[in-house]
Amino acid sequence: MESTTYAEAVGRFLRAFRQDRGITMDTVAQAGREFGARWSLSSVQAIEGGKAAPTLPTLLTLALVLGRLSGESIRLADLLGTAEFLDRPYILSSDQPVKRSWVERVLSGAPVEILAEDHAHAPMTSPTEDDWDEELELEALRLRSASTDAARSYDRVDAMWDAAIQPSELAPSLRGPRPPVSLAESRAAKKLGIQPLLLQRHASKLWGHSLEAEAKQRAGVASTPQARGRVTRILVDEIRASLESED
Q: Crossing angle, helix 183-192 and helix 196-207, to 10 degrees?
């Protein structure tokens, strides 16, 4: 799985589209100027090279230009070419790029909301549920209740996590997909002062599924983001109570 920047995706599409139809870069630049863009030959070269920022005015103008020159109907999403994963927005780290389907949905007029399933998750190694080391969870709880800085707590638990997922011939069972972390889970975990993975485990123990799934279930499938946000705050309190009951 390889993500692409928007500039690269648009540049590759423009080059392939133009060459397949025998359209020159000078022609593209001239047509762009007719729509108010200050395009020159070097401007088109920059777009094709993935070096020009694909601003909304640029994308709109490019779609108009290519539509006029080819006689075809061009959607904004078409300008992404064959890219399947876009580098932004991502959740927490760049190994969770957004899927093209999300970009197309938003460009088609859907609300700009992003869920865990809208991201591609790079495979990572981690302990399975059956092989989970309870010492890691206890250490996270201890760090949460300590008076140390929250960032230092995260660093220490991350270090333990990294050590736990290192491949080893002595521990072949410690291999499996690491659960993806949603933005809601990340924010809730930060509010509670714990690692997102620990939050996921408590959510699973309390409700049998993720925090996000429980919020959607209680608020209703057709609920607004604001309604789900209010429910999520209640769920965070329930997880806090679960954590405190283990102290």
A: 100
Integer Cα distance of 3 and 98 in angstroms: 8
Cβ neighbours for 16, distance < 8 A, ≥ 6 positions apart: 81
Query: What is d(CA 200, CA 209) in angstroms, rounded to the nearest whole number?
Result: 8
Task: Note the pTM of the prediction, 2 decimals.
Answer: 0.49
Q: Do the Cβ atoms of 13 and 70 come closer than 8 Å?
A: no
CA angle 190/86/159 to nearest 5° reads 35
User: Could you read off the pLDDT of 181-222 as tens digits, one per residue?
Assistant: 777 888 888 888 888 888 888 888 898 888 888 888 888 877
98: β partners: 86, 119
Q: What is the largest CA-CA distance in the chain?
A: 70
Question: Residue 211, Cα to own-chain centre: how many angstroms?
Answer: 17
Name the pairing type of β-strands 85-86 and 98-99: antiparallel
Position 201: which residue type?
R
Long-range contacts of 66-72 (CB under 8 A, 24+ apart): 66/14, 66/17, 66/18, 66/28, 68/31, 69/21, 69/23, 69/27, 69/28, 69/31, 70/17, 70/21, 70/23
CA torsion sign for 44, 45, 49, 53 is negative
pLDDT band with cut points at 50, 70 and 90 for residue 33:
very high
Among 61, 57, 97, 63, residue whose Cα is nearest residue 80: 63
